[in-house]
Amino acid sequence: MKNGLFSAFVGGITAAALVSALSPAPGSADAGADGYRLAGYGGHLAVYAAAGGAPREVTPIRLELLPGPDAEQLRRGVSVADEAELAALLEDFSL
Questions:
Q1: In a 3-state reduction of DSSP, which class is residue 44?
Q2: Pick from 92, 95, 91: which is nearest to 18 by CA?
Q3: How far apart, in whole angstroms, are the C-alpha atoms of residue 19 and residue 43?
Q4: What confidence score (pLDDT) does residue 19 get?
Q5: Which residues are bridge partners to 41 per DSSP?
Q6: Chain-centre distance of CA 90, in angstroms?
Q7: Per-residue pLDDT tens for 79-93?
Q8: Are strands 57-62 and 78-80 parallel, antiparallel or unpaired?
Q9: What is the separation, in whole angstroms, between the first and last Cα of the chain?
Q10: Residue 57 pairs with which residues in a beta bridge?
Q11: pLDDT (tens digit, 9 = 90+) per residue, 47-78?
C-alpha cells in the first residue's frame, strides 16, 4: 500500500489522481490490462489488481457508510474493466 497516497486522499485527492497514481508506466509488465477489482479491506474500500493479491491502495471510504446494497456488493468484490470505470466508481462512492 502507498501510505503517502492514502494520506493525500484523505486530504482531498481526486478519484482521477488516485487512478493516475495507481497506473503503472506504459508498457510495463503491470500495465493493468486485466483491470481492477474493488473490494473491502479492514472496513475500507480497496483497489486490487484484477489478478488478485494484496490491495494496491486502501481508500478512506468506509464500507459501513455506504448504502446497504453497495456495501454488500463491494464486500463480495466488483470487477472494474479499466481506469475510466475505476475513476467513476471511486468518485461515486466518495460522495
A1: strand
A2: 91
A3: 20
A4: 56
A5: 44
A6: 7
A7: 999 999 999 999 998
A8: unpaired
A9: 23
A10: 47
A11: 999 998 999 999 999 999 999 999 999 999 99
- Whether residue 86 contacts residue 47, with contact meaning beta carbons closer than 8 Å, is answered with yes
Q: Whose grid coordinates read 455506504?
A: 66
**H or E segment to which residue 21 belongs:** helix 15-22
Copy the grid coordinates of residue 88. Answer: 467513476
Of 74, 41, 5, 25, the C-alpha closest to 92 is 74
User: Of all residues in the chain, what percent carry a pLDDT higher than 70?
Assistant: 65
Task: Provide the sign of the torsion angle of the four alpha carbons 50, 37, 56, 83, taken in this order.
Answer: positive
Give the pTM: 0.68
Could you give the CA distance from residue 95 to residue 88 in angstroms, rounded to a whole number? 11
Q: What tens digit of pLDDT does each residue of 23-55 get?
A: 554 444 444 558 999 999 999 999 999 998 999
- At which residue does the C-alpha cell 466518495 appear? 94
